[in-house]
């Protein structure tokens, strides 16, 4: 019986031991020490670190702070600390902000330990903190961007020598980690199991009374402002109250492991007090710190243990002290297990996701080394995958992409929530977009975009509006054995959401890699998926992932087996509502010969959707065509994961699978500009969904609708649809214009702010000395004194919008530089003033400006020139402050008032608009006229009465162009006369010759483009820029086949120019003129006697018959017509007067000897004989044609709705082809070049 009882007791003890959790060991804390980039605090009894300016501000309670200080006495503060006697022996709360992992009278004098601190953005550290926060706060979905680590290593207590024969030798080790993103801050306190050997300190002034004050642990906001002139005690939170509660710091924990304590300590929107984690209460549990809970999702960080940072072993794990395990190796797709069965086994020595290696405990410090620094880290692996999630997709053990076709066991953890820490809309509504509603569910809250917007609720964009993406591209690639580096070059993308077109341009790409990256269209393909045209019951990428995601794509080329990795990280929306995406590319790509073209066929991709993750796998084929090697076929396999922040509290809306159909892919590298371009047309819908023929599909789904690019297409029955301008735009949907919320009083910007209009939106910009508050509209004063801008012997006084520095008594100076009174030194103003007297101390030169100095030798804030009477304000260096100069006879500025940020002077258009708004009493009627100005202040070429269709054209000075007034749905075809802003760097302004054969030339504002024809098909891959003309508005264009020259008109410079089509030829100006409308005619009719033309738009010449005839369209809106005459102007007659509206385009068909025109008002393409007979309709459903040419039985016309070139067969009256240039802007003039002169040119 005794033996049996003994065995039972032994088994019980063993079971208890196996079920317990070891506390945090010294080797398990976050790495620290100088080898890890830490700064060390000066040793002493009452030391404070120098100010540490954070890379981005951190929220503590409800306030934002940029500075941190570390103090000897176990605390971190957001402001410089007072002397220790003012706080070290007092309880909570303190008078100043405090984060206290162990507030006591500590001392590091005489080598009694070290104190280290640093800020970091290490992915391994951020990953580890994110894992702990998301398991301690299940609804947090926290993805930190920055962290701050402070470690007190073997520090002692202050001990008076008179009380002890010698120091006690007791030492404490503890650590505080602060991690934060743009809205939230969390704190981790770590106390190793042997780290606390004393639990309080004696007061210095205890008068030999043997008392000991327990250490204070917790958080204090400090004093906060109350009403205007008073302050009151702020909120605080205490963890300890007596000695036993201090001992609990390493015996218990609230994060699942003894010695680990986790708290939510700040939020940018609303925060009453600190919230402790509830993952493990105060009792030890079997959950391991550092291991993921089944419901944890940390999408921005790796899902494998980081070899730099240890995990805490279980009590059952044997401790071994050996070599550090190797880093996870890149695993090929062929090595990934493809059959269900036991869990994946990671490479030897590496723990897999959610696992812990029982063969070794990693990165433990040797037992005897209690003061040594944490081991130097091995290189971190920078890859982006989510942690295991409920029903998560498969991942390989090393975190690489796994195909959706592979069968892998899924985790299915049970999520448990506590009503005490459930996040609700009342507390966290601010995490939703301003254009979203917040909804509470039983387990938490979710954000949902309002009607008229799309997105994931955290980010919402207006339906129908075009979108822009900005970012940087970096990485190193091997091209034919040669490494080529991209160092943060610019990426810009423009997406027309209404028809799914995505244009991507990457600048400053060196030539070898520029050609080689042409096949890698998935770089720009991400933006196609994000903003794809949505078919019914489908969601594009932005509607699922919003603007916070990471996309990892792996590409394997065949037959060369080159491998390329692409990581694209979305970092939210800019103030202009542009998506910010950074791209990192690493690996090798096949060599592509210079001047080669890449041909890619349309393809389809199937996307699988899981909570927080989207996966896809596909195979792409392309051909490389070059003069050297001919045509070569290559393929690559693409596998990708897109991880994002998902809200699981609401029922899932996205389908499990969707199909992305890519209808067109174009890639080109422009050697002269060093720009790599991708153009992709995308739509997304159910798997297997195919659109019916053009006559059956709704135009909203085919992209053939006539809605403006800033409008949403709303499908109806059959082919019916409606156009609705996006939020922030006005108009009828077919023609939309930006609403200036600032000018029309629709903004919500507060005081001390300036409203800046944006396309489709606006933003509030604060005056100097202010910053935006959490609501994004109001401006709050910046307390510059928190950053200690003044000299060490000066005091700082914060003022509204500014601050003042004053030297302390006994010192003189400007507050930024203070000097002792004894042995006074010359200061800048005195030196400036006295230097004007010359080397002999003579009088100042007559008429010279002499600075005025104060009694301390500093520049007076107000300076005046005695000879001219001008006055201005200066800074401490005597430099004039912009915007403060006043002319003679006017009162000078008050230099103590903040200066409103300088802005460009108001233009004539803007002043006129503001005057009329004031005249209308601030609330103009929709039917009243207000000048419409563009973002640079110029008049928009088309002006309208309010939101009506009563419109007309104006020149650059706002003067109406006669004959352009209209009162129908189609606005007049007004041409800009002011050049857009120049975008640098500029390509060379010389000619790049087009390919041989027949080429369509087109004018597109600041450039002339060339589009070769292969038969009658447009050869899009060989399209190029013939001539870049920045600062111009090129409209009229023609080609002289005999001299091989191109001629054009520039409406901005009011010039006619020409250039030879030889390589390197430069433009020459032929004519400068102020008569713009005569310009269209004089380019073709050298001595024209027609002087009563109004709005001439199209000109055609019939030179196929013996007598040359001249035809032109006059779209004077009161009486549009088409006329003809001889080239000398004789025998003038009207051919067409009835049934036309806006006949822009005109060409001559030499095979049928008919004149043809395209009308943007009637939407028809018609032809008629020169004698006025035989009128017939070729097509009756055009969009907005502008210019047209006839060639080889086909009409080619530029379309302002599509901003492209459309071809149409004369025989079948069907559209045959379409070309959409990479640059998004209107196309104007449109001739054709050929080996022989082509008739019917415009």
Automatic annotation (TrEMBL):
<keyword id="KW-0677">Repeat</keyword>
<keyword id="KW-0325">Glycoprotein</keyword>
<keyword id="KW-0084">Basement membrane</keyword>
<dbReference type="InterPro" id="IPR000716">
    <property type="entry name" value="Thyroglobulin_1"/>
</dbReference>
<dbReference type="InterPro" id="IPR009017">
    <property type="entry name" value="GFP"/>
</dbReference>
<feature type="disulfide bond">
    <location>
        <begin position="864"/>
        <end position="871"/>
    </location>
</feature>
<protein>
    <recommendedName>
        <fullName>Nidogen 2a (osteonidogen)</fullName>
    </recommendedName>
</protein>
<feature type="signal peptide">
    <location>
        <begin position="1"/>
        <end position="23"/>
    </location>
</feature>
<feature type="domain" description="Nidogen G2 beta-barrel">
    <location>
        <begin position="465"/>
        <end position="694"/>
    </location>
</feature>
<feature type="region of interest" description="Disordered">
    <location>
        <begin position="882"/>
        <end position="901"/>
    </location>
</feature>
<feature type="repeat" description="LDL-receptor class B">
    <location>
        <begin position="1108"/>
        <end position="1152"/>
    </location>
</feature>
<feature type="domain" description="EGF-like">
    <location>
        <begin position="421"/>
        <end position="461"/>
    </location>
</feature>
<dbReference type="InterPro" id="IPR018097">
    <property type="entry name" value="EGF_Ca-bd_CS"/>
</dbReference>
<dbReference type="GO" id="GO:0005615">
    <property type="term" value="C:extracellular space"/>
</dbReference>
<feature type="domain" description="Thyroglobulin type-1">
    <location>
        <begin position="826"/>
        <end position="895"/>
    </location>
</feature>
<feature type="domain" description="Thyroglobulin type-1">
    <location>
        <begin position="906"/>
        <end position="974"/>
    </location>
</feature>
<dbReference type="InterPro" id="IPR000033">
    <property type="entry name" value="LDLR_classB_rpt"/>
</dbReference>
<dbReference type="InterPro" id="IPR049883">
    <property type="entry name" value="NOTCH1_EGF-like"/>
</dbReference>
<dbReference type="InterPro" id="IPR024731">
    <property type="entry name" value="NELL2-like_EGF"/>
</dbReference>
<dbReference type="GO" id="GO:0005509">
    <property type="term" value="F:calcium ion binding"/>
</dbReference>
<feature type="domain" description="EGF-like">
    <location>
        <begin position="696"/>
        <end position="737"/>
    </location>
</feature>
<dbReference type="InterPro" id="IPR011042">
    <property type="entry name" value="6-blade_b-propeller_TolB-like"/>
</dbReference>
<keyword id="KW-0272">Extracellular matrix</keyword>
<dbReference type="InterPro" id="IPR036857">
    <property type="entry name" value="Thyroglobulin_1_sf"/>
</dbReference>
<dbReference type="Pfam" id="PF12947">
    <property type="entry name" value="EGF_3"/>
</dbReference>
<keyword id="KW-0732">Signal</keyword>
<feature type="domain" description="NIDO">
    <location>
        <begin position="101"/>
        <end position="268"/>
    </location>
</feature>
<dbReference type="Pfam" id="PF07645">
    <property type="entry name" value="EGF_CA"/>
</dbReference>
<feature type="compositionally biased region" description="Basic and acidic residues">
    <location>
        <begin position="357"/>
        <end position="370"/>
    </location>
</feature>
<dbReference type="GO" id="GO:0007160">
    <property type="term" value="P:cell-matrix adhesion"/>
</dbReference>
<feature type="domain" description="EGF-like">
    <location>
        <begin position="738"/>
        <end position="780"/>
    </location>
</feature>
<dbReference type="InterPro" id="IPR001881">
    <property type="entry name" value="EGF-like_Ca-bd_dom"/>
</dbReference>
<keyword id="KW-0106">Calcium</keyword>
<feature type="region of interest" description="Disordered">
    <location>
        <begin position="294"/>
        <end position="378"/>
    </location>
</feature>
<dbReference type="Pfam" id="PF00058">
    <property type="entry name" value="Ldl_recept_b"/>
</dbReference>
<dbReference type="Pfam" id="PF07474">
    <property type="entry name" value="G2F"/>
</dbReference>
<feature type="disulfide bond">
    <location>
        <begin position="944"/>
        <end position="951"/>
    </location>
</feature>
<dbReference type="Pfam" id="PF06119">
    <property type="entry name" value="NIDO"/>
</dbReference>
<keyword id="KW-0130">Cell adhesion</keyword>
<dbReference type="InterPro" id="IPR000152">
    <property type="entry name" value="EGF-type_Asp/Asn_hydroxyl_site"/>
</dbReference>
<keyword id="KW-1015">Disulfide bond</keyword>
<dbReference type="InterPro" id="IPR006605">
    <property type="entry name" value="G2_nidogen/fibulin_G2F"/>
</dbReference>
